[in-house]
Amino acid sequence: MQVVSGIQPTGNLHLGNYLGAIRNWVKMQDEMGDSGQCLFFLADLHAISQPHVPAELKQSTLEMTAALVACGIDPARSILFNQAQVPAHAELQWLLSGTARMGWLNRMTQWKDKAGKNREGQSIALFTYPVLQAADVLLYQATHVPVGEDQKQHLELARDIAEKFNRDFASGDAPVFTLPEPYIPPEAARIMSLRDGTAKMSKSDPSEASRINLTDDAETIMKKVKKAKTDPEPLPSELDGLNDRPEALNLIGIFAALAGVSKEQVLIDFGGQGFGSFKPALGDLLVESFAPITARFRDLMQDREALDAILAKGAAKARERGTPTLDATYKALGLVRD
Ligand code: TYM
After folding, report:
1. Catalytic residue list contains 114
2. How far is Cα 104 from Cα 100, in angstroms, rounded to an integer?
């Protein structure tokens, strides 16, 4: 089992990232014990696919590193690094670009959403972004990739690229790449915006009130939960009663994921009550869950050198781990290097 996953260091770590991905990273790291190391990385190379401010990217990379450690990623047990320090990611992306098809990339919903009507004006990086994502996981022969639902299509593409490459270039029965499986949390696959239950919670949403950030203080969290869009009906006692009530369903889902219980159980406890009593309970649970993480994050941010050292050490290990697959890829393609 080889676990690999990444997060873009743009903006803050929010509740969607935490429940959809990071919490599972920590769980998988803890379950691995001594049987192997997970690889977790800051996808800084992905972050340049859209307009960005260099100084902010630098700061966000350090902040996201601190946030991941604060959430429980242990650099002594997992390999934590940023892509820019491991050139093999960009190299492998190029090597896979001969295999990835235009038609496959054209079908990516994230590309369609982000490009909108202005495809011609987008960077090439935004279009080829999923090939870099495929390189990220194939480089380490990933078997399990813990992500939220929105990344599923990108991982299916990674499988398609790996399959075609193996078919076209692997010699004999020895495939060059392992086919990765997405691992999506059943209870928190898609956390929605607090302002619109039909849109996913996202760092690119212009409304700060749409998401809860790891760095929000208790007062801000409470305020955002109280302002969260809902409807005037009381909560039902069964899940069926949440059909066509996306905002209510989202809040119940968040409560269930944080409390480690089913949505049905939350409705047994809160059914018949209005949001006037449910929202403060949800706010308390969020504050209680995030408080230790936020405190740890603030401490870690005080020591820039320690964060640099974590990334440097992680990158050295990642470079070593990636070398055999990168070499095998060059070789399979008939590229002469020595
Ligand atoms: P990113 O940075 O947008 O998000 C990081 C992780 O958080 C998950 N996530 C969510 N899960 C549930 N509900 C939400 N509202 C929500 N918002 C975000 C994402 O699914 C993701 O798991 N392209 C990736 C980064 C990446 C990557 C990779 C991931 C680059 N290379 C290789 C896995 C493997 C991205 O932009 O995620």
Report:
1. yes
2. 7
Compute CA distances 19 → 34, 216, 258, 332, whole Å. Answer: 25, 16, 8, 39
Q: Which of the listed residues 92, 128, 150 should we mutate to test ligand 1's pocket, taking the one with most ligand atoms within 8 A of CB?
A: 150
Tell me the one-letter amino acid at 161: I
Confirm or reject: Cβ of 151 under 6 Å from ligand 1. yes
The span from the first CA to the last CA of the chain, in angstroms, equals 32
97-118: per-residue pLDDT in tens?
A: 999 999 999 999 999 999 999 9
Please name the residue whose Cα sits nearest to atom 16 of ligand 1: 16
What's the pLDDT band for 232 if we cut at 50, 70, 90?
very high
How far is the CA of 113 from the CAs of 109, 125, 152, 207, in angstroms? Answer: 6, 15, 15, 18
HSE value, Cβ hemisphere, 13 Å, CA-based, for 274: 5
Distance 296 CA to ligand 1 centre (A): 23
Nearest-CA neighbor of 38 among 50, 47, 25? 25
The confidence score (pLDDT) of residue 187 equals: 85
Nearest to 2 by CA among 45, 46, 32, 41: 32
Residues 6+ apart with CB under 8 A from 59: none
Residues 151-175: tens digit of each pLDDT = 999 999 999 999 999 999 998 779 9
